[in-house]
Amino acid sequence: MSASSKTWETPAPALESAHCRVPFLGYSVDSLSMDEAVAWVARAVQEPRLHHIAVINANKMWIANRNSRLQQIIQSADLVIPEYAVVWGCRVLGTPVAAHIGGIMLLQSLLPWLESEGVGVYFLGARLAVVETLVMRLKRQYPRLNVAGALSGYFPPEESNAVVEGINKSGASIAFVALGSPKQEFWIDNNREHLQVRVALGVGGSFDVLAGLKKDAPSWVRHGGEWLYRLAQDPRHLWKRYLTTNPWFVSQVLREKFMPCKMSKPTQTA
């Protein structure tokens, strides 16, 4: 069944549900619980357009500070969900958000609802062996999950149109895009006029974790210690990133905190 022909027996909560949008270092971050985020997605798949959910964290802000296009994409996203560094930063600046909602956390929280409602999903990204293992594992855990399609993220740029066409033909309503940042954000933005899915979410390296090939940070370190956990698993590739981005991010938050002109209070979404 195509995205445009999908019907629902029970209307989902409206996108205009009351939650705050918090200003943070030039961005607007959505302050909502995980249940509210799932409800937002449930409503979004009923609307005939693509909704881009962007994840914001210290590393992505560091890249965006040097790449105006990524900055604009995040600023114009339909929903901006904060990982823990941003949650910490908002709290320091006196504009706390409701919850830490990472891309992989939202994906995992959506799975039971996706299975129960039969919403078609498409997985794009990672190596072929990873995405195949991911689909097999998810089908064991959620037997009725409607996997409309899956494709490795290692395709040449000239095949991007064919990839979009394949996603559209699959009838998927949600695309999880794991191409890494900023490539995944650029790809979604480049194709948003042609993609027929209702929701697109960039999820970075989540497929390796969900496929069981890498371990996710346990719950007891999900309050600021995820980066140390990930660094311990892959120090060769991550040490430079964290050594660069984390001090920069902390300095930006502290500079904002002690500047005479304070950030404005959260505004209510329309």
Description:
The protein is α/β, with parallel strands linked by helices. 45% of the residues lie in helices and 15% in strands. The strands form two sheets. It has a six-stranded parallel sheet with strand order 4-3-8-7-5-6, with helices on both faces. A hairpin with a 2-residue loop joins β1 and β2 (27-31). The relative contact order is 0.17.
Topology:
Elements: E1 20-24, E2 27-31, H1 34-44, E3 51-56, H2 58-64, H3 68-76, E4 79-82, H4 84-92, H5 103-117, E5 121-125, H6 128-141, E6 147-151, H7 160-170, E7 174-178, H8 183-191, E8 199-202, H9 206-210, H10 226-233, H11 235-258, E9 267-268
Parallel strand pairs: 3-4, 3-8, 5-6, 5-7, 7-8
Antiparallel strand pairs: 1-2, 1-9
